[in-house]
Amino acid sequence: MAQALGEDLVQTLELQDDSSSLGSDSELSGPGPYRQADRYGFIGGSSAEPGPGHPPADLIRQREMKWVEMTSHWEKTMSRRYKKVKTQCRKGIPSALRSRCWPLLCGAHVCQNKSPCTYEQLAKAPGDPQWMETISRDLHRQFPLHEMFVSPQGHGQQGLLQVLKAYTLHRPEQGYCQAQGPVAAVLLMHLPPEVSPPLCSFPLPRGSFCAPTQEAFWCLVQICEVYLPGYYGPHMEAVQLDAEVFMALLRRLLPRVHKHLQQVGVGPLLYMPEWFLCLFARSLPFPTVLRVWDTFFSEGVKVLFRVGLTLVRLALGTTEQRLACPGLLETLGALRAIPPTQLQEEVFMSQVHSVALSEQDLQREIKVQLARLPESTSGPPPRPQARLPGAQAIFEAQQLAGVQGGTRPEVPQIVVQPPEEPRPPRRKPQTRGKTFHGLLTRSRGPPLEGPPRSHRGSASFLDTRF
């Protein structure tokens, strides 16, 4: 099953030519005159100006200042105010600050600080010829109408080649998966080489895109190994498990749609892998893709299930829509041809957040479907416990492991002292009728030579000589 899944995905991605990439609405519209690019860098795109429902400039500046304050004290923010981080991610990270926030949310900055020379060594090392040939054939397919990836010798395609090659050297047992191309391309668009991005109310200048950064590589590593472990390996065992989970959620949340999909023979492996593996980078308008990624970095794979359920409901939610799709091809066409007006970022994301799916519900369903998987499947079994549900879990795991300081934190130990032996009560000295001078002389040693002084004739304390 896992091998068949991999072949289906490869066929799905290879059959698409350059003009069929659904990474953004600019690619759907085609190149415009004079090669004018929109605000996201897509040639001939329709996102030159903010769309309807876009927040005003004053609100964007307020959100920028909130993110600047939160990221300036990131450990304190994640320890005490994660709910605010989650809320701000759902509202959308400002474009000027995504290069600063994405590595913090996914923990890539910690990995980079722990191994500062790893990427440089991997980038200089020669790659495996088998993977290098496959990667080179796929470079021109990743957002071909984006100004970063237009030229084969440009910094975009060459940077993408370096990042993907570095990952094959970093994890040779996994190698390269075609779905990593769109993910790495989106990371390169938003992680330019500047150490700290300009804190302003407009996107980074297009001229700043050049060599790939360590942040893009480490973000890709975190996505493949922490957010979606088992997705990009040779067996893709986690995809099969999540496909069963997705169908179970459809049965519970959208029973009529689930029944229709079963009747026409459309299984989740026919449409879900491209959604989840590419993080919807090839299936949604680009502004909506960025909003999905903001929330995904914050809340984890739960967001992908919510987005997928929303897309299925928009495509097949009504009786008229299901009647218009009597067969398999019509149903798949409906899932891939949702009107762009229904996918606008603000309206679409509000529907995504309203899906009744919590992290507890998802984990419960994963356990149920994991127990139902046949034991005779080839390849390693899926390990859903290795997947961390979002930024808070990643931050806590890194803090527990002591990655930032390079040493493991000291775990406080409880030391139980044996009870002390009871001591006899101390007897209070009898000082009644005795002078202070007499107490001093008796405590220091034997009495002084000379005639004893009677009690009645002794001098008072005020008359003693010091």
TrEMBL record:
Residues 425-435 have a biased composition (Basic residues). Residues 92-300 form the Rab-GAP TBC domain. Keywords: GTPase activation. The keyword Membrane does not apply. Pfam families: RabGAP-TBC. PANTHER family: RAB GTPASE-ACTIVATING PROTEIN 1-LIKE, TBC1 DOMAIN FAMILY MEMBER 10B. Interacts with both calcineurin and HRAS. Inhibits the Ras signaling pathway through its intrinsic Ras GTPase-activating protein (GAP) activity. Acts as a negative feedback inhibitor of the calcineurin signaling pathway that also mediates crosstalk between calcineurin and Ras. This is Carabin. It comes from Neomonachus schauinslandi (Hawaiian monk seal).
